[in-house]
Write a sequence for this structure.
């Protein structure tokens, strides 16, 4: 009797084990019928530009995990959406366009890796970058749209009335950033770029449009070098501002004993224009003109431009009013450095 009872228990155990093993394949089949894999979920990605700017395809899409590693990457050749398959998690999606061969990008990047311009901290291609975050779950039809913005500043240069004996003209801009991370953080401070200008048929000197990363300081130094058969002269000016991403910088000027440069900062779509006008060169000469606010003659006690005052050289007087004025001073040491460089005939 005990033998039969034991046999019955064994039989019941085998039946229970068979039932459990039969249920597992049924669960897998239901999961497959849903069309959703627990380790390979679809994410639809689309890219668009801000405003009416056109994306310079191809664009490269990267999915970075929370630890900063790259989980997947794809190449987008047009404005149609693409599908990337990723495990459930939270991701930072980065889209980059306009790379070409003028930029260096790590082959297997991390989120804090950087993009650099290969030569001279400038490029003829406009780099666009956009980021977005998305959390992938077991839900279907997850999608994300990434908006791309210009990560560089467009620079245009045109100089007029340069003496006919000048053979070479170049422009230097500093300080600039030299690299950009996938999180749109700039690094590599205090770099510069120097662009050679070419003589046009109308007598002006200009450079093809080029792109730079933003300025790395609160001020920007512009230097124009004129070279003839016998000498090289450099004229410089410190601008109380800096190149900005998504903001073109138009530099136009003329030479007339000194070099007068008028510029405008334009955000395309960029943004609304901010005019910037300044003179440089011709130290010790009368630089007054329509572009420089004259000293207010009704204010007593104001020094003359070019005179020594309060331990410095008076380089300019601005915002004059009945209550005061802003006096721009140049140190005596700087005056000694720039004086031999001024004037070219």
């Amino acid at each position: 009797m005990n033998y039969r009872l034991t046999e019955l228990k064994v039989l019941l155990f085998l039946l229970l084990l068979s039932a459990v093993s039969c249920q597992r394949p049924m669960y897998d089949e239901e999961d497959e019928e849903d069309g959703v894999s627990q380790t390979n979920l679809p994410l639809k990605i689309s890219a668009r530009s801000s405003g009416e700017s056109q994306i310079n395809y191809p664009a490269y899409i990267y999915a970075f995990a929370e630890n900063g590693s790259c989980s997947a990457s794809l190449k987008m050749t047009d404005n149609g959406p693409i599908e990337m398959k990723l495990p459930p998690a939270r991701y930072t999606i980065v889209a980059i366009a306009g790379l070409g061969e003028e930029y260096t990008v790590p082959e297997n990047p991390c989120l804090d890796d950087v993009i650099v311009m290969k030569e001279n901290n400038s490029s003829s291609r406009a780099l666009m970058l956009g980021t977005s975050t998305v959390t992938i779950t077991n839900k279907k039809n997850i999608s994300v749209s990434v908006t791309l913005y210009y990560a560089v500043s467009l620079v245009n240069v045109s100089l007029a009335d340069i003496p006919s004996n000048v053979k070479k003209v170049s422009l230097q801009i500093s300080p600039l950033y030299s690299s950009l991370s996938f999180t749109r953080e700039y690094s590599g401070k205090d770099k510069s770029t120097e662009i050679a200008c070419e003589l046009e048929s109308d007598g002006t000197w200009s450079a093809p449009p080029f792109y730079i990363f933003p300025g790395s300081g609160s001020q920007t130094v512009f230097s124009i070098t004129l070279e003839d058969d016998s000498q090289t002269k450099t004229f410089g000016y410190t601008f109380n501002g800096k190149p900005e991403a998504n903001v073109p910088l138009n530099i136009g000027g003329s030479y007339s004993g000194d070099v007068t440069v008028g510029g405008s900062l334009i955000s395309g779509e960029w943004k609304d224009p901010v005019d910037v006008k300044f003179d440089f060169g011709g130290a010790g000469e009368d630089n007054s003109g329509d572009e420089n606010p004259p000293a207010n003659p009704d204010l007593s006690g104001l020094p003359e431009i070019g005179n020594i005052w309060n331990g410095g050289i008076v380089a300019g007087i601005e915002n004059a009013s009945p209550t005061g004025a802003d006096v721009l001073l140049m140190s005596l040491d700087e005056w000694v450095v720039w004086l031999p460089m001024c004037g070219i005939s």
Summary: The two ends are 126 Å apart (CA to CA). The chain has a mean pLDDT of 74.
